[in-house]
Structures are given as structure tokens and as C-alpha cells.
Amino acid sequence: MDVPRLSHEAPDREALRALSGAPKDRNAAMRLLFDRHAVRLMRHLRFRFSLPESIAEEITAQAFLRAYEKADDFRGDCEVASWLVQIARNLAVDHLRREGRMESLEDEDFAGNADIFCELVPASHEPHALLENKQVAHCVRERFTAFRLRHPEAATALWERHVNEVSPQEIAPMLGRTYRATCQFLSEWGKKLRQFVAPCYELLKGE
């Protein structure tokens, strides 16, 4: 799922370009990317795929190696962070397939965005149980896509916070707001997003 890019993206793109340069530039670029994204990737893998810490660390290392090898393949149509997450996710899926722990990957694309989904689920429901309801999951996905088109800045900020696990302190300069104003922005737009997808849960009443 593509999300509009924010200004913090520039260092990542510069680092990717540097991977085609001199060895010392490549090393510095990899350190920058690793420092900016490694912890976030490991958290994503552990939460999304219930991986042990050691396996998540191994897959994260493999993801950065793959990014190093495939830097020239980056098309620039998404954020570097999203690209890295997709690489790590594919490696995790391959690992789980080899282990025989992934019976169905039909909704893998949406499961990868379940951090946003979990934010939208009413307190009276269990997020991961609702993910199994394909009709509800499809509705939420479609509603979030519509929300993103109408309110790209808010959708991007919420995506950064809940999917990429960027802190409000880091999001504040992206939005040009103070820390307190950013927290308020995320809270208010989170409520609006939940209201926007609320009709999807009406589908549950027919079950």
C-alpha cells in the first residue's frame, strides 16, 4: 500500500544512491539505513509473524543484505522504509513456509498492514479474530484507501506511527508541528479514521 512520502525520506534515498558509490560510501550508507530502520524492522517481524527474537534479528540482517544487493531495483514509488519492510516480510514468509507454519497467505498483503487495522477495531472486538473475517477486512482496507486519498497527510502520519512505529517526536518535524500538537493531531485523526471505517463493523451484525 503506497503512502505519500514525507520529508524524512531524503536521507534514506541518498543512502540508497550511495550504495552504488565508493566502498566507504557504501559502508556509511548501510550503517545509516541500519541505524534508522533495524529496530523497527525487528519489532515488525516479531509482532506480525510471532517470530523469536533471534530469528527476527537474522531475517532483519538478511533484509539489509538483500537491500544492499537490490538497491538499484528501488523504483522510488514508495518510501524506503516501506520497501525495507516488504523485503523483510517476504523473507519472513519464506522462512515460515519452510517451517510449515504458514497455511494460508491469501490475505498476507492486508495482514502486513494490520497495525493500522488494530487501531481501527472497536474495543469490544478482538483485532486478529476480525482479520479472519474476509468481508470485514476487505471493507476496512477499502475504507482506509479512501481515507488516504481524502486526507493524505493524516493517513501518512498515522501510517508512520502505527505501521512503521515512528515516535511522535520524529513525526513532529515531518508535520511541522510541536510534539504536543503532533500528539493531539494523531489522536484526533485516529478517532476520525475509526469513525470512517465504523460502517464495516455493521457487517458483523448479520452473522
TrEMBL record:
Q: Could you tell me the keywords of this UniProt record?
A: DNA-binding, Sigma factor, Transcription, Transcription regulation
Q: Which Gene3D superfamilies match?
A: 1.10.1740.10
This entry's Gene Ontology molecular function terms read: DNA binding; sigma factor activity
- Pfam family for this entry, one: Sigma70_r2
Q: What does the record list as GO biological process?
A: DNA-templated transcription initiation
InterPro entries membership: RNA_pol_sigma-70-like, RNA_pol_sigma70_r2, RNA_pol_sigma_r2
Please, which domain of life does this record's source organism belong to?
A: Bacteria
Any idea what this protein is called? RNA polymerase sigma-70 factor, ECF subfamily
